[in-house]
Amino acid sequence: MKKLLLPLLFIFGLLTSNAQSESPYEWDWTRDGIWTGAALGGSALGLYLIGEKDDIDEAEFARIQNDLQNDAVDINFLDNWVIGKHDEDASKISDIPFAISFAAPFAMLFDDEINDHTGQYLGLYIESLATTAAMYSITAGLVNRSRPYVYDDSGETGLDRRKSNNGQRSFYSGHVAATATATFFMAKVYSDFNPDASTFGKVAIWGGAAALPATVGYFRMEAGQHFLTDVLLGYALGAATGILVPELHKKRMDGVSFYPTGGRNFMGDEYKAMALKVQF
């Protein structure tokens, strides 16, 4: 049985190797190991900074209360309509598309082109999320900006919640940033592995990638967790990371060049042409 099994496994391995599609990306264990490790380290540092944040300063809280009573809250026009929102149900709803976004990229493993490079794909996905996590957590740990619900003086939001250090993490939206990273990463990688995919397929996947973080952002604002500018920045940074991390890993074409050439053919006729040179 063993004598029969070994040749079969060998043949199966050859078939699998020959059938494997070519990836548009390059993965370097040294470079990407350092990158991912540094991003995870940055995330840990950011979480430490967040944990060490102080509650809102009493003088600042008194100023907010006074501004609310005098209708003098100094918030820019893009954000002032979110002041005081505090819908906790909306906060719970926002967690649904947030969770879906993390799972969505795994659906791409059903794509034959991507499935041939599962390890590389998952490595790039983790690297992208870790990069976003580091940027967000360090920023949230260093920057104090009151969440919209801190401005809710209706009595529905308790003072303890309004004064807690968690209320000082409005800038910027981590939920939206992480969601955008996951969905735009999925769309970018799908497009790179399937350049000849149908227009409908590409519109559908990019449309979904854009819609999911926008949905999360809407509910985060309704929940009073973030202002519009927090959501917009989180969206932009998350989408940029989801697109740029794969793009920076694309194989370079250093060995391919085009150049003009000319001369005479074997019949003595002159010709001019463009030559393609490929170096291995």
From TrEMBL:
Pfam families named among the record's database cross-references: PAP2 (PF01569)
SUPFAM superfamilies for the chain: Acid phosphatase/Vanadium-dependent haloperoxidase
Which superkingdom, per the lineage? Bacteria
The signal peptide, as residue positions, is: 1-19
Please give the InterPro entries that the UniProt record associates with this protein: PAP2/HPO, PAP2/HPO_sf
Q: Does the keyword Signal apply?
A: yes
| Domain Phosphatidic acid phosphatase type 2/haloperoxidase, first and last residues per copy | 125-246
Q: Which UniProt keywords apply?
A: Signal
Query: What name does the UniProt record give this protein?
Result: Phosphatidic acid phosphatase type 2/haloperoxidase domain-containing protein
Which species is this record about? Patiriisocius marinistellae
